[in-house]
Each structure stands twice: as structure tokens, then as C-alpha cells.
Specification:
2 copies of one chain form a homodimer.
Chain A lengths: L15 H12 L5 H8 L3 H13 L3 E8 L8 E9 L4 H11 L5 E7 L5 E7 L2 H13 L4 E14 L3
Antiparallel strand pairs in A: 2-4, 2-5, 3-4
Helix pairs in contact in A: 1-2, 2-3
Chain A binds a DNA duplex through helix 3.
DNA sequence: ATTGAAATGGAGGGATT
DNA sequence: AATCCCTCCATTTCAAT
């Protein structure tokens, strides 16, 4: 009923082996195919084929190193809640597209509730963070209100 | 002024090559050492030594596959703001330690402001999300208040 | 400390059962 | 889907600068 009529049944064909592969690779993205195959209990060639298929269908989006932000000269992190002034599809989509390209952007969450977006950003200093908000968000006519919360500490979950 | 007197000057010795390696591996965690060496402009052996050093000093925390949550049977994501009833070090540390082990936990942010924590979680369904909040947060005496915001959409940043 | 080359080991691909 | 085998390439070590 919209312009994108679900192209494919989303992951209906994934079995336990596939999910095990996803879990292992999420935990250790550099796990070699041989070791991965052993862990999930299939032959290496099968495992390779599965992993490729998971790439292809979009279940695996990519591989990334987890880097200590301080090591890149961006020791500060913040969560910025953003309330938009309008909520039509075009405004929301445009804001998302702009946001992901902003310098220091880690993740963009479109959320339900009073606020529309939560932005996870990194910055070199308190000044840089302030400038980020002023230069990229406060000036944006689509943005009605922002609230910045400094991140004291971040930890990765295990589940 | 506390019990941990900065063990090491944090990343003072990182040069442009190191930061380039971090940036490349953050963008593509499976980039082979050869290709990585070429991109940052050093010999493979040098690159390998650098990368290992970056492991060793904690600048690289690990490698992870980015998996579509829907593929793991956890199509719902939420940000849960948590306000604690007390703010002494022991309570806060204990809450963090417990949180990271909760099922479906993606990330735990300890933030400044009215709320103390923001939890990024995944769930199989709205019911499962409700149960998560009721069973793991609402019953926790350290938790005073929670607010759950469903994530409509998430995007990775590029900066 | 970095480099280049040489040796080791593992990954990738195909054919067969 | 799994096992074997073969080829190829990346990683690693080492000597030299």
C-alpha cells in the first residue's frame, strides 16, 4: 500500500545455523571461516556459502573495528535529542539524510515519543560539541528543539 | 585525585599513520593487512606492527559484524532512559555491570542530565520489550524511573 | 623503527560422494 | 551438504638498512 511493497519475505528462510553465524560474527568480526564453521557445526564450505548469502540478503551489513573514540582525538561523546518542527515524511527523511553525513556522527535514531531523533555524536572538545549543535542543528529550520546529554561512559552490550 | 592515577598518557604517541589505520578499520573491519598498508602508505609488516600495537594499547577494542537486527529475530529496537534512585558510585557501577549482561542489550550509555542511563536494546516483539522493562528494570530497586522510546529507524553515521 | 623478501599457514573454490 | 584436494594469497618472521 505504499511505494515499497516488501520486496522479499524478510529473513523467513534463516535457520538456526544462519542465526548462529550472525551471532558469532557480531561477537568477533574477524573470526576465520574455518573457526566459524566449527563453532556453528557445519563444514567450512557450507559456512562460507551461508556467510556470503547473509551478505547478499542484507542480514550482514558490514564489518567494523570498534575504536576507542579518545584514540581518534574525539574524547567526548554525546546523545542529542532532537525535536523537529514538522513531521511530514519529506522533512523527516531529509533530516535523516543530512544527519548521517555530519562530522562526528556515530548513529542516528529515529524514535517514537516527544522527541523525533536521538543523535549519537563524537567531538574533540566541549567547544567543538557546542559548535556542532549551533552550526548544524540550531540553524536548521526543521529543528525545533535539541537537548544534549554528555556521555560519561559507554559499554557494549552482550545480548 | 582518585584511586586511578592515569596509568598512561592516553594515546599521546599516536601519529597520522595510526589514526589512518583506525579510520580505515572502523570503516572496513575486514580490510586485509596488505590493502590497509597500501592505503595508509606503509609496508605491510610495519602496518601489522602498528595494528597490533593499537590492539595492545586499547585503541582498537575489537571487531564486529554489523547485523540487521531483524535477521536475528529481534526486529524491535528501543532507547530506554533510566533514572536511578541513588547516585553513589557503588549503585551506578553495579547498575552498569548488570545492564550490559541483560538479554538484547546493544549499548549502555551513562549520561549527564536528569536521566542517568540510556539503554539501547533489541526485542522480538512489543510484548518482549514490555517484559524486558518490567522484569529487569522496574523490579530493580536502584531504578527510580524509566522511559522507553521505540526506534523507528537507525542509521550509521559516517563521521 | 621501517623495510623488503622469504617461508609458513590458512582461506577460497571446485569436483565428487 | 560434506569431504577431499589444490591453488593462491595473506600473514608472519627475519635479516638488513
Amino acid at each position: 500500500m505504499s511505494s515499497s511493497p516488501n520486496p522479499a519475505p524478510p529473513y523467513a528462510s534463516l535457520d538456526d545455523t544462519d542465526r548462529a553465524i550472525l551471532a558469532e560474527l557480531a561477537a568477533d568480526g574477524r573470526l576465520p571461516n574455518n573457526a566459524l564453521a566449527e563453532r556453528v557445526g557445519v563444514a567450512p564450505s557450507t559456512c562460507l556459502a551461508r556467510t556470503r548469502a547473509l551478505h547478499g540478503c542484507g542480514a550482514i551489513r558490514g564489518f567494523h573495528a570498534e575504536v576507542d573514540p579518545a584514540a581518534m582525538g574525539l574524547p567526548l561523546q554525546a546523545l542529542i535529542s532532537v525535536r523537529l518542527s514538522a513531521h511530514d515524511r519529506a522533512v523527516v527523511a531529509a533530516f535523516r539524510a543530512r544527519s548521517v553525513r555530519l562530522p562526528g556522527m556515530v548513529a542516528v535514531f529515529h524514535v517514537a515519543g516527544a522527541d523525533d531523533y536521538v543523535l549519537h555524536v563524537r567531538a574533540a572538545s566541549a567547544d567543538a560539541l557546542r559548535d556542532f549543535v549551533l552550526d548544524h542543528l540550531a540553524v536548521d529550520p526543521a529543528v525545533q528543539h535539541t537537548q544534549t546529554s554528555l556521555i560519561f561512559e559507554q559499554a557494549r552490550g552482550l545480548g
